[in-house]
Amino acid sequence: MSLEQEIAKRRTFGIISHPDAGKTTLTEKLLLFGGAIQKAGAVKSSKIKDHARSDWMEIEKQRGISVATSVMGFNYEDVKINLLDTPGHQDFAEDTYRTLTAVDSVIMVIDCVKGVEIQTEKLMEVCRMRSTPVICFINKLDREGRDPFELLDEIEEKLSIKVRPLSWPISMGKTFKGVYSLYEKSLHLFTPSKTTVEEGIEVKDITDSLVDDYVGESNARQLRADIELIEGVYPDFDVNEYLNGRVAPVFFGSAVNNFGVKELLDAFIRLAPQPVPRETSVRIVEPEEKKFSGFIFKIHANMDPKHRNRIAFLRICSGKFERGNNYFHVRQDKSLRFSNATAFMAQDRETVEEAWPGDIVGIFDTGNLKIGDTLTEGEKLMYTGIPSFSPEIFKEVVNMDAMKTKQLEKGLLQLMEEGVAQLFTYELGKRKVVGVVGALQFEVIQFRLKNEYNATVQFVPQNIYKACWISSKNPQKLAEFIESKQRHIARDKDDKLVFMAESRGWLQMVQDNFPDIEFHFTSEF
Ligand code: G4P
């Protein structure tokens, strides 16, 4: 098969949702359709359950298990699908943000009872930054949920994206009858706990009396009124608008009942983009380019202190990756040999001989790679778009064992490279402050520093509201600002200047007082 054909048959995507909306269940059903797993329940082990919320060891263990399910490759019809898993636990949200940089599109799951929840809003923000195409799946229609029109309005409002329903529910909860596919003009009837999926019933159009026969007169009347409203209110579905991240097609279903999932998957393989061109520091790289290039978006450490190797996840962006070849590590300006690469197929890992744009390859690494690194066949370019977001909780790292300073430095550096947390070093006094999204990370860091690097630390809470990356078109003004706010200026891991704001009000005041300074909430601007 040619490079172009390999690219055309690939779809690399992620599923995002607020915890409990049904991401794991949907993942599992998709894998069942792809024949990648044989029975339900196989994916559950990767799920971090509520009861483990305060037990991070348990979470890490589960994260360990979930390496296998981090990337699930499977074939459906003639399409090679790469599904990238994202951690459900919000304390690991940064992991999810980064994973979203490696996908070409996203399926967003929304619980029809709860509507748009906070985690979905945050994840959608990341999608919007990159104009990632989003398909929306409204789940749990077997429950008494909110009015579908109301849900669509909420998505548009809270997620700032236009929607276009491509299927429509007929009633809900106990009286849920099924969905009408506006996309295929067919009726799909719901039977609870169905494990196999029958083809939809084709109808001429919505006026077909078959509709009344199958769902009853009153439901049919309501459906016709709803469809009329949809056709009147929403413009026709335009696939380019979807591909540009401006419109999200919406499907309804019930993942646990395997209902609406096949329709979703069928539409997905037809609509979702094949691997797309990507921006680098110097130019846009097309997947069809003959020369290989890719970037590292995730690093998973081995919890065993005796084996400090880790798995780096490489997204292939152009050309063909071949095991055993030497590739150019742009940041380190040197050539590396990759003899130990694995592909991810559902829950198994297997040695990979070659991989194509859209594929994810796991590379065993002993410390050469970090998140954001680019590999090429020699060209000096760096993939962009792997931003750090301002953390939400900040604590100063205090070294409790002066004899182990070196180990601490090394440990901190490596954990930061894995993306466990962000480190800010103050200009004055070189104080080190760690920032995280979820409080659990502090326990993880403390434990791992002790366990893997034999360094003992304590954390002292800091009164910091946000870390803002700063810049200015006027170097003189920037220097003046740094001078006047010296005590609050730090550097991030890449030596970028950061202003550590103590409160929202104070930040606002500082912004007003220094109009020449730009304050950014992500490291890429
Ligand atoms: P998540 O990965 O997004 O966190 O959600 P997950 O799939 O684990 O689903 C959360 C809960 O919602 C699960 O119940 C799951 O069975 C249920 N669920 C998923 N899809 C549907 C649906 O279409 N209808 C209904 N009624 N429920 C659905 P649980 O009790 O937390 O777990 P379990 O004991 O069933 O495994």
TrEMBL record:
<dbReference type="InterPro" id="IPR053905">
    <property type="entry name" value="EF-G-like_DII"/>
</dbReference>
<keyword id="KW-0648">Protein biosynthesis</keyword>
<feature type="binding site">
    <location>
        <begin position="17"/>
        <end position="24"/>
    </location>
    <ligand>
        <name>GTP</name>
    </ligand>
</feature>
<dbReference type="GO" id="GO:0003924">
    <property type="term" value="F:GTPase activity"/>
</dbReference>
<dbReference type="GO" id="GO:0016150">
    <property type="term" value="F:translation release factor activity, codon nonspecific"/>
</dbReference>
<dbReference type="InterPro" id="IPR004548">
    <property type="entry name" value="PrfC"/>
</dbReference>
<comment type="function">
    <text>Increases the formation of ribosomal termination complexes and stimulates activities of RF-1 and RF-2. It binds guanine nucleotides and has strong preference for UGA stop codons. It may interact directly with the ribosome. The stimulation of RF-1 and RF-2 is significantly reduced by GTP and GDP, but not by GMP.</text>
</comment>
<dbReference type="InterPro" id="IPR041732">
    <property type="entry name" value="RF3_GTP-bd"/>
</dbReference>
<feature type="domain" description="Tr-type G">
    <location>
        <begin position="8"/>
        <end position="276"/>
    </location>
</feature>
<comment type="similarity">
    <text>Belongs to the TRAFAC class translation factor GTPase superfamily. Classic translation factor GTPase family. PrfC subfamily.</text>
</comment>
<dbReference type="GO" id="GO:0006449">
    <property type="term" value="P:regulation of translational termination"/>
</dbReference>
<keyword id="KW-0547">Nucleotide-binding</keyword>
<dbReference type="InterPro" id="IPR027417">
    <property type="entry name" value="P-loop_NTPase"/>
</dbReference>
<dbReference type="GO" id="GO:0005525">
    <property type="term" value="F:GTP binding"/>
</dbReference>
<feature type="binding site">
    <location>
        <begin position="85"/>
        <end position="89"/>
    </location>
    <ligand>
        <name>GTP</name>
    </ligand>
</feature>
<dbReference type="InterPro" id="IPR000795">
    <property type="entry name" value="T_Tr_GTP-bd_dom"/>
</dbReference>
<dbReference type="Pfam" id="PF00009">
    <property type="entry name" value="GTP_EFTU"/>
</dbReference>
<protein>
    <recommendedName>
        <fullName>Peptide chain release factor 3</fullName>
    </recommendedName>
</protein>
<dbReference type="GO" id="GO:0005829">
    <property type="term" value="C:cytosol"/>
</dbReference>
<dbReference type="GO" id="GO:0016149">
    <property type="term" value="F:translation release factor activity, codon specific"/>
</dbReference>
<keyword id="KW-0342">GTP-binding</keyword>
<dbReference type="Pfam" id="PF16658">
    <property type="entry name" value="RF3_C"/>
</dbReference>
<feature type="binding site">
    <location>
        <begin position="139"/>
        <end position="142"/>
    </location>
    <ligand>
        <name>GTP</name>
    </ligand>
</feature>
<keyword id="KW-0963">Cytoplasm</keyword>
<dbReference type="Pfam" id="PF22042">
    <property type="entry name" value="EF-G_D2"/>
</dbReference>
<dbReference type="InterPro" id="IPR035647">
    <property type="entry name" value="EFG_III/V"/>
</dbReference>
<dbReference type="InterPro" id="IPR009000">
    <property type="entry name" value="Transl_B-barrel_sf"/>
</dbReference>
<dbReference type="InterPro" id="IPR038467">
    <property type="entry name" value="RF3_dom_3_sf"/>
</dbReference>
<dbReference type="InterPro" id="IPR032090">
    <property type="entry name" value="RF3_C"/>
</dbReference>
<dbReference type="InterPro" id="IPR031157">
    <property type="entry name" value="G_TR_CS"/>
</dbReference>
<dbReference type="InterPro" id="IPR005225">
    <property type="entry name" value="Small_GTP-bd"/>
</dbReference>
